Amino acid sequence: MSRRFTPKIVTANRLREGDVVYLTADDRWSPFHHEAELIEDEAHAQMRLLHASAQKLLVVGAYLADARPGPNGPEPTHFREEFRTRGPSNYHHGKQADYA
């Protein structure tokens, strides 16, 4: 018996800055997890991952991450992904300072 597909988002790191980014439904790379496209179909998720992986001049390390619907958009379901939404953890700078 196969496992039931859980909703996913496509995430990667921006090639130049290394920032965590999320693929949106309109093919933008956003620094905000809640703007990511929540994908609920396995075949569509694989197609979106292929699309992201082909953007080698923009992002690296694209992968599918589990997510769940939330009131403001997708929410992470795993600690690692929650941690990645906050940016660098050594001190308050970069994404943490820009979006506070």
Description:
The longest helix is centred in the middle third of the chain and has 12 residues, at 42-53. A 5-stranded antiparallel beta sheet has the order 3-2-1-4-5, sandwiched between helices. The chain has helices at 42-53, 79-85, 95-98; strands at residues 8-14, 20-23, 29-30, 59-68, 75-76. The chain has one domain. By secondary structure, the protein is α+β, with helices and mostly antiparallel strands. The protein starts with 7 loop residues before the first strand and ends with a helix. The protein has 3 helices and 5 strands.
SSE topology:
Blueprint: E1 8-14, E2 20-23, E3 29-30, H1 42-53, E4 59-68, E5 75-76, H2 79-85, H3 95-98
Antiparallel strand pairs: 1-2, 1-4, 2-3, 4-5
What spatial order of strands do you see in the largest sheet? 3-2-1-4-5
| Tally of structural domains | 1
Total beta strand runs: 5
- Outline the biggest β-sheet: 5 strands, antiparallel
- The SSE order reads EEEHEEHH
Separation, N- and C-terminal Cα atoms:
45 Å
Protein name: DUF2849 domain-containing protein
Region (Disordered): 67-100
Compose a concise summary of this entry.
The chain contains three helices and five strands. It is an alpha+beta fold and 100 residues long.
Output the keywords.
alpha+beta; DUF2849 domain-containing protein; 3 helices; about 25% helix; DUF2849; about 100 residues; 5 strands
